[in-house]
Design goal:
This protein is mainly alpha-helical and 539 residues long. The protein has five domains: 79 residues, Winged helix-like DNA-binding domain superfamily/Winged helix DNA-binding domain (Arc Repressor Mutant, subunit A), CATH 1.10.10.10; 74 residues, Arc Repressor Mutant, subunit A, CATH 1.10.10.10; 96 residues, Arc Repressor Mutant, subunit A, CATH 1.10.10; 85 residues, Arc Repressor Mutant, subunit A; 89 residues. The protein is 64% helix and 8% strand. The longest helix has 39 residues.
Length: 539
C-alpha cells in the first residue's frame, strides 16, 4: 500500500464519517490489524469512541474482525483499503442506478450507500417517503412500485444480501465480537428457535405427556397475566447492501461498448452490448472471457430497433473477430459458430489507450508517437527509434530521456560480452505496460488527494461567507413559507449579501464544481487502470 493510497483513504474517511472515525480508520490502514485496546492506545482516543467508530466502519463493510489464532487473545480488527477507496465512486454508482432504474433505483442505492446496510422493509419505506416529499401535494408514492424496483435491482445483482455474523460455536472471542456487532450496528441476527414450536421425542407417549404438560403450563401463565409471558424469539432480519463488483462489471462493459463504437460503428457496438448483456449474470467478475454464444442466440437477443438480417450479423461478427484488438473471438480451436468477448484483451487495450492519452497530454504528440511505436515494435534501439519515428536525433534523445526518467518507458541492457562494456552492449527501449499502469495509478491516487485537499482549502477560506449565505437563505425560506413577508422586506434581506460577496460565492461554486468534475474524470482513469491490473495479476 502506497503513501498516496493511505492519504486518499484518510481524506475519504474524514469527509464521509467525520474526524473521529477517520482517525480510527486511518490508524488501522497504517498499522494493519490491531486489537481494540492497542488501537485505542495508539489513536489516543477514549475506548467508547473507538468502539463507536469501529461500529460505523464495520457496518459499512470498511473494517472486518476475525477471531485470534491462539486461545485467550483479543479479537483483531482490520481495515480494507480497497473498499475505502470505493467511497470516491459513490456518485457514479448513484448516477448509474438512476440511469438504469429511474428515481426509485437512485434513492434505493443512495440509501444503501449512506447507511451501509438496511433491511428491505425499512429501505423501501424510507425511499417511498422521500419520493412522496418530492411529489405534488396530495399524491403519494406506493410502496409496491419501490419494492418492484428493489426486486429488479436484486435480480440483476446490483444489491445483495449481507453475509451473516459469526455464530457462537466459533469460539468465545468470535462470539463476543459478534454480540458487539449485533448490538451496535444492527447486523443480521440469526433466528433463535428456542421456546418455539413442539419438541420431538423418540418415544411417542412420553412426547404426548410432555406436550400436554406444556399446554397446561402455558394456559396457567396466560391466566396469571400478560406481563409474565415470555417474549417470542425475534424473527431473522435480512440486511441488504450494494454489490460494488456488479457496478464495476457494468462500468467495464460500458467502456468496452464505447471503445467498439469509436473504433467501428454503432451496429458493432450494439452487437457487443447484446453479447455482454446476455452473459452479464453468468460470467464471474474476474473471468477472462464471457460465456460462449452462438450467432443464432445473439440474433434472437438483438434489440427490436436493429433490423439487420442474420447474414449481416454473421458478417459483423466475422469483422469483429478479425479485428487486431481482438475484443471478440471465436470459442475453441475450430471456431465453429460460438463467439466470446476477450475481457482481458479488451481491458488491456483500454489501459493502453489511457496510457497513450496521458503521454500525449503530458509530453506532447511526438512523445506519444514514440510511445505507440514502442508498443507496436516491443523493443528498439535509439537509432531505430529516430528512423522509424522520423524525429531528429537530438530531439528523440531528449524525449526518450524524459519518458525514461518518468518511468513511462524502460531501458534494457543486452551485453555482447561478459564484461558489460558499453561499446559492446545493446541498449533497447521498450514499454512495460503493467509497470507503467501501476505508476500512473499511483499518480492518479495522488491527484485525487490533491484535488480533495484543494476543495477543503477553498471551503475553509470562504467558511464565513458560506455560513452567512446559508443564514440568509434560511431566513428567506422561512419568510416565504409563512407568506406574510412583503417584497421590500425580502429584497432587504437579499441585500445583506453584497455584490462582491455574491461574485465571490459564484467563483467558489465554479471552482468547487471544476474540482468535483476533475475527481470524477480521474476516477474513470483509476477504474480502467485498476481493472487492467487486476485482470493481469489474477491467474
Amino acid at each position: 500500500m502506497t503513501q498516496a493510497q493511505i492519504q486518499l483513504c484518510s481524506l475519504l474517511l474524514r469527509e464521509h464519517f467525520g474526524e473521529i472515525v477517520g482517525a480510527i480508520g486511518t490508524q488501522l490502514i497504517r498499522r494493519g490489524g490491531q486489537p481494540l485496546g492497542v488501537l485505542a492506545h495508539q489513536a489516543r482516543r477514549p475506548l467508547h469512541q473507538v468502539r463507536k467508530a469501529l461500529c460505523v466502519l464495520i457496518h459499512h463493510g470498511l473494517v472486518s474482525f476475525h477471531a485470534p489464532r491462539r486461545r485467550g487473545a483479543a479479537v483483531e480488527y482490520e481495515a480494507h483499503c480497497g473498499r475505502v477507496l470505493r467511497l470516491l465512486r459513490f456518485p457514479r454508482y448513484i448516477y448509474t442506478a438512476k440511469t438504469l432504474y429511474g428515481d426509485a433505483g437512485e434513492l434505493l442505492v443512495e440509501e444503501l450507500l449512506l447507511n451501509g446496510q438496511m433491511p428491505r422493509s425499512a429501505l423501501v419505506r424510507k425511499v417511498a417517503d422521500r419520493l412522496t416529499d418530492t411529489m405534488e401535494e396530495g399524491k403519494t408514492m406506493d410502496d409496491g412500485e419501490v419494492s418492484a424496483t428493489f426486486v429488479r435491482l436484486a435480480d440483476t445483482r446490483f444489491v445483495q444480501r449481507c453475509p451473516s455474523t459469526p455464530s457462537e460455536s466459533q469460539g468465545s472471542a468470535s462470539s463476543d465480537a459478534s454480540a458487539f456487532l449485533e448490538t451496535d450496528t444492527h447486523a443480521p441476527q440469526k433466528t433463535s428457535l428456542a421456546g418455539k414450536g413442539k419438541r420431538r421425542h423418540s418415544d411417542g407417549e412420553e412426547g404426548e405427556e410432555e406436550e400436554e404438560g406444556e399446554r397446561k403450563a402455558k394456559q396457567a401463565k396466560q391466566e396469571a397475566g400478560a406481563k409474565e409471558t415470555p417474549a417470542p424469539a425475534p424473527e431473522e432480519v435480512v440486511y441488504w447492501q450494494v454489490n460494488l463488483d456488479r457496478f464495476h462489471q457494468h462500468f467495464r462493459d460500458q467502456a468496452i461498448v464505447s471503445a467498439v463504437a469509436n473504433r467501428m460503428d454503432q451496429t458493432s457496438s450494439e452487437i457487443v452490448r447484446t453479447m455482454l448483456r446476455m452473459s452479464e449474470v453468468t460470467t464471474a467478475p474476474g473471468a477472462p472471457y464471457t460465456q460462449p454464444l452462438s450467432s443464432n442466440e445473439i440474433f434472437r437477443s438483438l434489440p427490436s430497433g436493429y433490423n439487420i438480417s442474420k447474414q449481416t450479423l454473421d458478417q459483423y461478427l466475422t469483422l469483429l473477430a478479425d479485428d487486431p484488438l481482438e475484443f471478440v473471438g471465436k470459442s475453441g480451436e475450430s471456431g465453429g459458430g460460438m463467439y466470446v468477448i476477450n475481457l482481458h484483451k479488451a481491458l488491456a487495450s483500454l489501459a493502453t489507450a489511457t496510457l497513450e492519452s496521458i503521454v500525449q497530454e503530458r509530453f506532447g504528440s511526438r512523445c506519444a508517437r514514440i510511445f505507440r511505436l514502442l508498443l507496436r515494435k516491443k523493443h528498439l534501439e535509439q537509432k531505430q527509434i529516430e528512423d522509424f519515428a522520423m524525429i531528429p536525433a537530438k530531439e528523440a534523445k531528449e524525449m526518450m530521456y524524459k519518458m525514461l526518467s518518468a518511468n513511462i518507458v524502460a531501458l534494457q541492457e543486452i551485453p555482447k560480452t561478459p564484461d558489460h562494456a558499453p561499446s559492446r552492449t545493446f541498449y533497447l527501449y521498450g514499454v512495460d505496460t503493467l509497470s507503467a499502469a501501476r505508476m500512473l495509478l499511483h499518480r492518479s491516487y495522488k491527484s485525487v488527494a490533491n484535488l480533495m485537499e484543494r476543495r477543503l482549502h477553498e471551503t475553509k477560506e470562504n467558511r464565513r461567507l458560506l455560513e452567512k449565505s446559508q443564514r440568509v437563505e434560511a431566513i428567506l425560506a422561512s419568510l416565504q413559507s409563512s407568506g406574510g413577508a412583503e417584497e421590500a422586506q425580502l429584497q432587504e434581506i437579499e441585500e445583506m449579501i453584497t455584490a462582491p460577496e455574491r461574485q465571490q460565492l459564484e467563483d467558489l461554486k465554479r471552482n468547487v464544481h471544476k474540482i468535483d468534475a476533475s475527481e470524477n474524470q480521474v476516477d474513470e482513469t483509476i477504474f480502467i487502470l485498476e481493472s487492467y491490473i487486476n485482470s493481469t495479476v489474477k491467474p
